[in-house]
Structure formats: C-alpha cells, structure tokens
Write a structure and sequence with these properties.
The complex is a heterodimer of chains A (273) and B (281). With 273 residues, chain A is an alpha/beta fold. Chain A has helices at residues 14-23, 69-77, 116-120, 129-142, 158-171, 188-205, 216-222, 253-266; strands spanning 27-38, 41-53, 58-62, 84-89, 92-93, 101-104, 176-180, 208-213, 225-230, 235-241. Helix content of chain B is 75%, strand content 0%. The chains are: A alpha/beta (273), B mainly alpha (281).
C-alpha cells in the first residue's frame, strides 16, 4: 500500500528563497522498495518513502538503529542504486555519486596520508591550482580550522576531524549536503558545539542539508523538518515541522514540546510520563 | 609556532585545542634517551673487550678465534690491496639485481592478485604452494637450467626477494579499508585514479615492510648462492678462508655481510620513512 505523505510546507526565509533560484538543490525522493538479501530471503529495508525537500532546507531524518535511515542517505548519495523507485535532484535522476552532493559519514574517513589541506582538496583534482587553494582556504576558514592545513588527521581530535570532513564535503560546492550521524561518536559537549558550527555553515553556504541521526534533540535543534522513520521496513511515520527561529533554546517550552512530539512517535504517549 | 607544532614537541602535554575537545588517537611515545643507546652497547663492547684480551693472552686459539683487532686488520689489508672492493662490489651487485628482479615481479603479481579477484583465484594458490618449497631446494634445478654462472645466483636471490614483496602487497591491497574506497567512489575516481590516489598510498606501509623483508632475504640468499660455488663475492671469501684455514677471513666476511645488510636496510628504511611522511604509524 502506498502511503503518500502530505508534504508540509516550511516557512522558507527570504534568503533561502533567493538562493533557491540561483543554486537549486531540490530533492524528490520516491523510494517504493529497497531490499537486502539475507539468509531468510529478501528483507525489505525501506518501503514507500516519498519526500520532497526544498532548496536550502535543513531536514533531519530520525529513526532507531536498523530502520534504514543510513540506507536512505546512501541512496541519496548515489552509493546504493539497486532499489525500486527513483530519486531526483533538480529534476535529474540520481544514478550514482556526484560532486553536487557532499557526504559526511559517522567516521571522518579522512585519508591518513594526506594533510588537512590535501584532504579537503581531494575532490578538486580537476580544478586549477589557484582555485583549488582558495576553495580549501575558504572552507577551512568556514569550519574554523584555518591554521591546521598542514596537520595530519591523526594529529586532530574527533571534532576537528569531523570539521575537516565537512569542509571536504563542501569543497566541491554541492547543492546538497548529506550527513550520516556525523556527531554520533563525539562527546556531548563537542556535539553541541558542532551542531552550532553546522548551522553556521549551512546559513553561510545555503545548501540543502539532509542529516540522519538517532538523537531527537539534535534533530529538533537543527532541522526545519524532522522526518520520523519507523523500523522494518523503514517508512515515513510522520514529519514534524520546527518553525521556531534560530538560534533555538534547548530548554524552552516550545523546544520541549516539539521534542516530546517526536519522542511520542517512537513511544506511545503517556508511557514516559 | 602553531599549537600543532607545540603539541608535537611536547607529546606529554595534551594541551586542549579549540576549547577542550577530546583528542583522537594520538600516540604518545617517549623519546629514547641517549643513555638507552649506551646501555645497549655495554654488553657487546664488553664481549669484544673480553674476546680481545683472551685472544691476546692465548687462551683462545689464534687459528680458531683470532682477536677482533686481527680481524679488523685482515679486512683493512684486503681493502688496501683492493681485493676487498671487488668482492664486496660483486656481492652488492648480485643482491641489487636479484632484489630488483624479484621485487619487480613481486610488485606486479602482488598488485595484480591484490586488485583483481580473478587473478588472485588463478595465481595465488599456485604461488602459495611454491612458497612452501624451501627456496634452497631449487638450487640444483637452477644450476641445471642456468649453469654455475651468474644467472643461477641471480635467479635464487630473486626468488628470495619475490615472496615477501608479493605477499605483503597482495594482502595489503585486498584489505584496503572499504570505507576509504567509498570516498573515492563519492568523488568518482576512475579505476586508475583509485589505484594511484587511494590504494597505493593506503598499502605503502605494508609494501615497504615487504620490500624490507625481501631485501633481507636477498642478502640471505646471496650467501647461499656464493657458498654454493662462486669465484668472487663475500661468500667466496668465506669459502676461501675455510679452505685455507684462515678464521680471520671467515669472521671478517661475516662482519662484511652484516655491515652491507644493515646498510642497505638502513637506506631502505630511511627511504620508507621519508615516503610515509608524517602519517601515523
């Protein structure tokens, strides 16, 4: 049975609207079925995931482990192509990875033999050296690692490595930034700082952002819309709009209310009272 | 000086950068002190000294175990006469040529089997079973095929150098972190770029280890090759010393092998360290 979700419109800021005209970054997701072969036969991981994401929008996908949220992100990245349905970016079907989508994984996946500078420049091999250098500079600046370009990944902390990974993903000037639990392995304080950094980067770059997480607070803090995915098969259970202005206060009433609303999607209301 | 440099120089200081983010897996190693090195020298030097004294007092028979100074003088005299350089030179040339051929073959086949699964399935079982034959066992066959001249020696040395290089490279290429390969996929690298920009740098540490053990085995096999019949080389000097009952020449040759082997390994290691740069080890 195909359940098409009503797509809630989000109040898009004026800047985002302007940006939308110039840059693009509209994602049309229509995944009917994605299965994996297991010993018990074909296991359905994602079913009937229909979602439209606006240019410049920040969407968080929340779900428990094994719900297929990472698979969904890998489909958007073009790393998974074997599924029923289609995903379009600005009207073009996604058939594989491309520089118009930047990806950040849970692990930083920096190349240990390259300096911070060369890691960020990794995808820019075909650009002119001058352009490459200025791009690397710009994005290292943006993530606050200006003076670390000659360092090697093993000399960096977890948070710094993840910043470099974000700079690398942005260096190709993607229309969409895809993040797969990017801060899950960081300590709580670093995580909060990184969330603020990410918001800052997003506001300055105006890319569409899709972030997968199991951290509800993180999702409510960051997202324009929180997409709740249920497990086995993963399907969209609800979409919660977060209209409060940024920076958001994690302790205020509105924040708690939305946070509880998302939480209630996973646990029956009253269960946690 | 940047914070990073300070951190490198003061590894015990985990000074908080960027407001106390926890540090990643930085290895903190204590710099070896000068006294550590001196400590390592005491026993060898003590043995040398005792040996010298005992040999001079006549406790050790002169024709069995001549004094270290006598050995040194023997080498020195050969060096002055010019004979030594010819022998050392030809041995080094044999090792170099054998190592080059074996290393090259090991690199090619290692890369092929490491990168292409079909090639591995075709070639690896055969090469692995050949590896289990003790390499010296090939000597009669090499002598029969290639004669007693240079080519049989070079073949034996190549064979020795081949396996470590092949094995290390093949295994390392197969085990490159698939998560890093996925990064290459994201940036749409071609297979050639994948090899050049991701796989080769990723396997470089293991490959250098393979080259080092290959070089070590090349030295081992040059000794075997020269002992089995040569008219020149350090191994020949040993046989000559044995025939003429001159222990000083035999011991001097052992020393020469040690020096040459250590020197080439040092060069190889230094090159490797340079190539690996500052990456974490």
């Amino acid at each position: 049975m195909s359940v098409r979700m009503t797509i809630e419109r989000v109040i898009v800021s004026e800047a985002t609207r302007d940006h939308a005209v110039t840059k693009g970054g509209t994602l049309e997701i229509a995944i009917e079925n994605k299965t994996f072969a297991t010993y018990q036969g074909q296991l359905s991981i994602l079913r009937d995931v229909f979602l439209s994401i606006d240019p410049g929008e920040f969407v968080c996908i929340v779900g428990g482990s094994g719900c297929g949220k990472t698979t969904l992100l890998r489909i958007l990245a073009g790393l998974e192509t074997d599924y029923e349905g289609a995903v379009h970016l600005d009207g073009n079907r996604i058939t594989g990875p491309d520089l118009n989508r930047g990806v950040v994984f849970q692990e930083h996946r920096l190349l240990p033999w390259l300096t911070v500078h060369d890691n960020v420049a990794f995808g820019l091999a075909r650009r002119a050296p001058v352009e490459r250098a200025s791009k690397v500079q710009h994005y290292l600046d943006l993530v606050g690692l200006k003076n670390f370009e000659h360092d090697y990944p093993h000399q960096l902390s977890g948070g710094m490595s993840q910043r470099v990974a974000i700079a690398r993903a942005l260096a190709g000037c993607p229309e969409v930034l895809l993040l797969d639990e990017p801060f899950a392995s960081l300590d709580a304080l670093t995580r909060i700082r990184m969330q603020e950094e990410l918001l800052r980067v997003w506001q300055s770059e105006r890319t569409t952002v899709v972030l997968v997480t199991h951290d509800i607070e993180e999702a409510v803090y960051l997202a324009d819309r929180v997409v709740v995915i249920s497990s086995r098969p993963g399907t969209i259970k609800n979409i919660v709009s977060v209209d409060s202005s940024r920076p958001r206060e994690r302790t205020d009433h509105e924040f708690s209310r939305i946070r509880k609303a998302v939480l209630d999607e996973f646990f029956a209301p009253g269960l946690l009272e | 000086m940047s914070t990073a440099e300070q951190n490198q120089q003061l590894p015990w200081k985990t000074s908080a950068r960027l407001g106390g983010e926890s540090h990643g897996s930085r290895t903190l190693r204590r710099q070896p002190r000068v006294s550590d090195h001196l400590l390592g020298w005491t026993i060898p030097l003590g043995i040398l000294f005792a040996w010298e004294v005992l040999a001079r007092k006549g406790v050790l028979p002169q024709n069995w175990l001549p004094a270290p100074t006598v050995i040194a003088r023997t080498i020195y005299e050969m060096a002055v006469a010019g004979d030594l350089w010819r022998h050392v030179g030809i041995t080094i040339a044999r090792v170099a040529l054998g190592f080059l051929i074996g290393g090259l073959a090991g690199t090619l086949l290692g890369a092929l089997t490491g990168y292409i699964p079909v090639a591995r399935k075709l070639l690896d079982p055969l090469l692995q079973s050949l590896r289990s034959v003790p390499s010296i066992a090939w000597v009669p066959l090499f002598l029969l095929w290639l004669g007693i001249q240079e080519s049989s020696k070079i073949a034996l040395i190549s064979l020795g150098a081949f396996f470590p290089v092949y094995l290390n490279l093949s295994v390392a290429m197969r085990h490159v972190d698939p998560k890093l390969l996925e990064v290459g996929k994201l940036y749409r690298l071609s297979s050639f770029q994948m090899v050049r920009r991701l796989i080769l740098p990723a396997v470089l540490p293991e490959y250098i280890v393979g080259l080092r053990s290959g070089l070590g085995l090349a030295w081992m096999f040059v000794v075997a090759a020269e002992l089995l019949g040569a008219s020149s080389g350090i191994g020949f000097l040993m046989v000559d010393g044995q025939m003429t009952g001159r222990a000083a020449i035999i011991l001097g040759s052992v020393l020469l092998f040690a020096i040459c082997g250590k020197a080439t390994d040092w060069v190889m290691n230094a090159t490797g360290t340079r190539l690996l740069g500052h990456r974490a080890r």
